[in-house]
């Protein structure tokens, strides 16, 4: 048993979809969440900047005595996971990509689409990981850079979001004809209803959900599951816009949710 909290990190509010999933799968676990909303989106920044920002946040979460770190950000997973694991070899650090890839391959998918940020698609991390497990798999990726800023601005349930999804995906789906789609950004489950409405033939894979399944397995194997913890979940963000607060209220409307401003030193 280990009642220390789990650290969860994203460039913005998208990682809260992983926290929501964690509370469903592992209700005894407690969380310290950090959303770097002042510097989001990460997906358009250089790899060096992304690694720098991610290291600052994970350094903070480790100082909070977390027992595990979940990188609930595909961009950070693609570009900084290896360096973070080298920095903290004693702490299990899980990214969202590997668990998602394992699930897709285990389901026998042969032609897969991936939507993600520019940084994630440029790294081709999903393509490389999928082909490492199944060299015959056909993978096609599309960058959707406008979705994250729109989500962060609270424009999820709007016509402009639906038009944005169509802008990125109409030709992408038509050209490649895949039936399985990886939501390669933890913000994207928040627009999944638009995707399901426009492309009902697609089976969606959420990296937010798959990473929690992986975390659950690791905690069980290491006898680190919490039981009766008196710790209270803590949520931090580096910027507190009205839209951000509105989005968190929507995600956690039935809970006693409070988010606090915390800017980390450069």
CA-CA gap between termini: 35 Å
Tell me, briefly, the overall form: globular
Strand tally, please? 10
Label the structural class. alpha/beta
As laid out across the biggest beta sheet, the strand order is: 4-3-1-2-9-10
Number of helices: 11
What is the radius of gyration computed over CA atoms, rounded to a whole number of angstroms?
18 Å
Order of helices and strands: EHEHEHEHEHHEHHEHEHEHE
Level of helix content?
A: 40-55%
Query: What kind of sheet is the major sheet?
Result: 6 strands, parallel
- Beta-strand residue fraction: 15-25%
Low-confidence stretches: none
Mean pLDDT: 92
Could you outline the blueprint of secondary structure elements for this entry?
Layout: E1 6-10, H1 16-25, E2 31-35, H2 47-63, E3 68-71, H3 74-87, E4 93-95, H4 97-106, E5 111-116, H5 118-123, H6 125-133, E6 138-143, H7 147-152, H8 159-176, E7 180-183, H9 192-198, E8 203-206, H10 207-221, E9 234-237, H11 242-251, E10 259-261
Parallel strand pairs: 1-2, 1-3, 2-9, 3-4, 5-6, 5-7, 7-8, 9-10
Describe the structure in your own words.
Helices cover 46% and strands 17% of the residues. The chain has 11 helices and 10 strands. With 266 residues, it is α/β, with parallel strands linked by helices. The longest helix is centred in the middle third of the chain and has 18 residues, at 159-176. The N and C termini lie far apart (35 Å). It is globular and about 50 Å long. The mean pLDDT is 92. Helix 3 links the parallel strand 3 and strand 4 (93-95).
């Amino acid at each position: 048993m280990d009642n220390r909290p789990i650290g969860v990190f994203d460039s913005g509010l998208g990682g809260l979809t992983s926290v929501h999933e964690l509370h469903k799968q592992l209700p005894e676990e407690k969380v310290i969440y950090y959303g770097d909303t002042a510097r989001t989106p990460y997906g358009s920044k250089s790899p060096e900047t992304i690694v720098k920002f991610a290291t600052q946040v994970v350094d903070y979460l480790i100082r909070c005595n977390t027992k595990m770190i979940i990188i609930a950000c595909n961009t950070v997973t693609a570009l900084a996971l290896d360096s973070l694991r080298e920095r903290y070899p004693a702490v299990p650090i899980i990214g969202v990509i590997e668990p998602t890839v394992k699930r897709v391959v285990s389901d026998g998918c042969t032609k897969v689409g991936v939507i993600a940020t520019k940084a994630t698609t440029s790294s081709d991390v999903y393509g490389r990981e999928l082909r490492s497990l199944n060299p015959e798999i056909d993978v096609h990726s599309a960058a959707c850079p406008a979705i994250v800023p729109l989500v962060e601005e609270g424009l999820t349930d709007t016509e402009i979001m639906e038009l944005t999804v169509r802008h990125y995906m109409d030709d992408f789906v038509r050209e490649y004809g895949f039936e399985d789609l990886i939501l390669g950004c933890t913000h994207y489950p928040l627009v999944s209803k638009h995707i399901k409405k426009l492309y009902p033939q697609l089976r969606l894979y959420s990296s937010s959900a798959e990473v929690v399944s992986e975390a659950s397995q690791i905690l069980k194997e290491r006898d680190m599951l919490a039981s009766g913890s008196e710790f209270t979940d803590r949520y931090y963000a580096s910027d507190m816009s009205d839209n951000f607060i509105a989005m968190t209220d929507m995600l956690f409307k039935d809970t006693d949710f409070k988010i606090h401003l915390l800017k980390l030193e450069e």
